[in-house]
Design goal:
Two copies of one chain form a homodimer.
Chain A (H helix, E strand, L loop, with lengths): L18 H7 L13 H9 L2 H13 L2 E2 H7 L5 H13 L3 E6 L5 E6 L1 H34 L3
The structure holds a DNA duplex (20 and 20 nucleotides).
Chain lengths: 149, 149
DNA sequence: CCGTATCCCGGAAGATACTG
DNA sequence: CAGTATCTTCCGGGATACGG
């Protein structure tokens, strides 16, 4: 972890954005003229998908779940969407699919190490939201009080 | 921070999911029978939106941007979507909108403290992705090599 | 310049029936 | 049980023109 002094730019409060970090992450393209597509955003978009997040969280909690388990635990998901999401997650290395040659067929899903790591990231985000949630709701109400939608 | 021993279940590597944290965050509902809607997911979904993320990142980097600036810097966004996203972000307390009574009209957007904090969270996520990205791409190729689509 | 209103289309995703 | 195939619906969101 290089700690060079590239960041001597004022840090008068701890909330300042780490622009150096930003430039490192997005070093591939010019921030003033960013490309329409970016691999990081691509991965982000797929994995921040509504269903994918839930699947990851569920597997994070229960460790091993079968197709039917997931379908039951994730309210409202159709077999189609569950199947597609699982394929994406597997393809990108977040989960492992294990099929057992039994009758009736049995298939188990679990997180990979990468998946667990990501799950913890999601948890951090959720934690962040839960901390700010009162403020957010409060602000919404203030605005609602003033304007009509 | 309750550290009850509900989690005596093995911790043989540091990537294990913090289920206690999970239960705290989602304490509102039964994980075995989660509701279809959840306030945290609601906020998450809105703010993890493709355009919202980009707006937050841009404002994190440039600090102050006008409507036209954002439209120019965020490739492909329509005025409609930009407007909607900005409204959401403002309503949820991530950005501040300041209008100056000039002609021609001038409006500036900047992050709130909450917005900056969130921006850093997004940066962490991006950093995570950029770290795992090679692994992800590698895995994809392996799978592609075996199966067609 | 800062947006809103309108029209319109493609693709995301639900429901369901079916197969290995 | 674990998915796939199909059909259809719906609405997110792009393009554009206009109003304040």
């Amino acid at each position: 972890m290089k700690q060079s002094n590239l960041n001597e730019t004022v840090v008068d409060n701890q909330l300042v954005i780490d622009k150096k970090k930003m430039e490192n992450i997005f070093s591939d393209f010019d921030l003033d003229n960013p490309p329409a597509v970016c691999p990081i955003r691509d991965v982000l978009a797929k994995v921040l998908d509504k269903w994918s997040i839930l699947i990851v969280l569920m597997l994070g909690y229960y460790e091993i779940l079968r197709f039917a388990d997931l379908k039951k635990k994730i309210k409202g998901i159709s077999p189609k969407m569950l199947s597609i999401s699982l394929k994406h997650l597997e393809k990108d290395g977040f989960i492992i699919r294990t099929a057992f040659a039994e009758v009736p067929l049995r298939v188990e899903y679990k997180l990979t190490a990468q998946g667990e790591s990501f799950c913890n990231k999601i948890l951090e985000l959720s934690e962040w939201i839960s901390i700010y949630f009162p403020t957010i709701v409060d602000g919404r109400n203030k605005i609602d009080a003033g304007t009509k939608d």
